[in-house]
Amino acid sequence: MQDSAPTPLTEEQVRRAPKVLLHDHLDGGLRPQTIVELAAECGHELPVDGGAEELGRWFAESADSGSLERYLETFDHTVGVMQTASALTRVARECVEDLAADGVVYAEIRYAPEQHVEGGLSLDEVVAAVEQGFEEGCAAAGDRIVVRQLLTAMRHQARSMEIAELAVAWRDRGVAGFDIAGAEAGYPPTRHLDAFEYLQRENSHFTIHAGEAFGLPSIWQAIQWCGADRLGHGVRIIDDITVAEDGTIELGRLAAYVRDKRIPLEMCPSSNLQTGAAASMAEHPIGLLKQLRFRVTINTDNRLMSGTSMTQEMALLAETFGYGLRDLEWFTLNAMKSAFLPFDQRLELISSVIKPGYAALAGGVDPLG
Question: What CATH code is assigned to 11-361?
């Protein structure tokens, strides 16, 4: 579906394009100024004291290390200031405001409730505070965006069943599904098999971080043992694809299965570069995977740490691979089709928002009115 010699896109065109975001961490998208203010309120010590601008630089530099483990260390300071209901609500509200301003029309935002109870909140109170923020943000945006929660369990902890039960309890109140996250090496998804089996019995949706810092075994376990609906990142599926010198492409059995089953890949290009999952944007597997028509989606992962947005991720890919509006629409439709949202609601967003929005852009009309 790639355009033939598409006209280069401007950043403004990309910003105005309707976007769907499936992989974004709430604690990875705070505004630096908000962190400074919340830290002052709760007494959390920040790594630098030069204000919001310097703090923003610190996050970007610390995350740009090529190590997933060091990348994850930056969350000590975001999670550290998100330990009260008011802080969680503020962060959630500002998240929606920032996404709406970036042209996002649907988003699933993930976070680990178990990491926000140090101030005495219960798990239910954490989810309720985030939901309040999302509702306030959507209302302030004139309901131009739909935002739902993904509840994450940390793969190195032992609370996955508890979080899975929490996700099911809240699924009619703003929670779209479940996820596990954290360092992959040494913590395979099968450690949480009881939680995934419970979710399947409850007809609930879940995604699994797999194939980012670890290889094909992580992806295989996530799909074939745990039954993941989507793969968080899934970059290393490229290891099961062989490109011969003459350009012939051969898919291994796992890669072929992922493509045949249309299992969505939640790709986060800039983040993948920072964590070493991809060597450069030009070498990012997303180019070949799109060519082979895998169910690829574009995501931000952690907007603060990567200093990014959906507009920036799309613009980078457009510049790198020569994508045009039709390509960006293809990615967006992939994401909307893969969302943990009832089928009729997905169709409604596709038919009334996404397709008309791209058609208006192609015709030189402002889709935002």
Answer: 3.20.20.140
